[in-house]
Amino acid sequence: MVDDESNSTQILGKVLRKKGYEVFEENNSIQAKELIIRNFYDIIISDLQMPNVSGMDLLEIKPERSIFIMITGYGSVVSAVESMKKGAFDYVNKPFNLDEFIIKVEKAADKVVMQSELNKLKEIVENENSFCGIIGKSEKMLEIFNLLRNVSKVNINSLIYGESGTGKELIAKAIHNLSDRSSKPFVAVNCSAIPENLLESELFGHTKGAFTGAIESQKGVFEQANEGTLFLDEIGEMPFNLQAKLLRVLENFEVKPLGSDKVKKIDIRLISATNQNLEVLTSEKKFRDDLYYRIATVTINLPPLRARRGDIPLIAYNYLKKLAVKFGSDYEITAEAMQAIMNFKWKGNVRELENVLDMAAIKSPCKIIDVSSLPFQSEFELNTGDNIMNKSNLCTLMEVEKSYIKRILAATEGNKQKAAEILQIDRKTLYKKIKDYNL
């Protein structure tokens, strides 16, 4: 803390020490400059107007990771705003409103902690801490990794449940790569992406002239995956008449291409996946129950991204590494942007997250992804715990106000002045509500 008025540093230092902070006070701005050059401080709080070395001078020499808060007189608001443009985190007016001052320091401290945690996660990603290319350290994912190790050891059919974009094919590849079939083919086919009249041929193959357009013989995916693994994605979309033929293949381990009277023996491991509830489809007679029991010897339930938010920073950093190769440049992400990413409701799961990071990287010529780079900032969505709509609209006015203020603060990246203008209240009232709601 730097101020040429010793009363200021003593009073504020005492307040912060009571809050548990380690505080260094300096009333000589020249000495303060030397201290900042020789040492690292997580947070630097400095008066703007000082003899010899100004707060703006100290701002220019601060380490990139240090958070800077400028202290200004009421007549220096323009200079304070200018300091924020040059990298200051926030500013505080004199005479001091202690509640406002503490809130701003605590927010800066939160950012320090968040950045420290992100740096640790980045180190984990740098050390290639993943399971067969799947990133995750949450309890749910560790349970799945353990299940995959066991499933891969035995030659049984597996069914993967998971929403679109959760990485079902990655799970299937992991089982294949961990099994004794890893040196053999892994073939994937999406049952919903192939027209019904062509799907049978895609699965079982055909001979030349078997149907109009069949100008040459073609092996089906069962033959292509022989001795390896076949992954049938979105199996719930398979037409009912084809399900009987698939069941016969799985019972006899032989296929007969369209237009042929010869059967061919096959040896495959089948892994299926769906985003639908097959038990419900069987009760509705839309999926054969005998086929269901054949393909689902073991079921693997892949959680959506919103159910493992702690993995989001790991996944994001891992994908930024891929973008560095793709675009030929390293990318960084700010703590605020990472917090926004963690709070967003990812309906498209990992696939949607990667798409957002692609767009954010393109919008970030300085190679630093911040909140303004994210395509969803105008429709900022908080996690389910903060979404008042999840309470069936049965909530108090106080809950509505708290949720809305939190959204506005997030949308304005914590700019209290801007948030107060949007809310049409004065800053003093906003600070009181921030304190009351513990935002």
Describe the structure.
The protein is α/β, with parallel strands linked by helices and 439 residues long. The chain folds into three domains: 6-117, Response regulator (Rossmann fold); 139-303, Rossmann fold (3-Layer(aba) Sandwich), CATH 3.40.50; 313-436, no CATH class. The protein is built from 18 helices and 14 strands. A five-stranded parallel sheet has the order 5-8-11-4-12. Strands 1-2-3 form a three-stranded parallel sheet, sandwiched between helices. A hairpin with an 8-residue loop joins strand 9 (254-255) and strand 10. Helix 2 (29-38) runs parallel beside helix 3. It is elongated, with a radius of gyration of 30 Å. The two termini are 25 Å apart. 29% of the residues are buried. Mean pLDDT is 86; it is low at 378-393.
Topology:
Layout: H1 6-18, H2 29-38, E1 43-47, H3 55-61, E2 67-73, H4 77-85, E3 90-94, H5 98-126, H6 139-152, E4 158-161, H7 168-178, E5 186-190, H8 196-204, E6 205-206, E7 218-219, H9 221-224, E8 229-233, H10 240-252, E9 254-255, E10 264-265, E11 269-274, H11 278-283, H12 289-295, E12 298-301, H13 312-327, E13 332-333, H14 335-343, H15 349-362, E14 368-369, H16 397-411, H17 416-423, H18 427-436
Parallel strand pairs: 1-2, 2-3, 4-11, 4-12, 5-8, 8-11, 13-14
Antiparallel strand pairs: 6-7, 9-10
Helix pairs in contact: 2-3, 5-13, 6-7, 13-15, 16-17, 17-18
Question: What keyword list fits this structure?
Answer:
single chain; 439 residues; alpha/beta; Rossmann fold; 3 domains; five-stranded parallel β-sheet; three-stranded parallel β-sheet; 12% strand
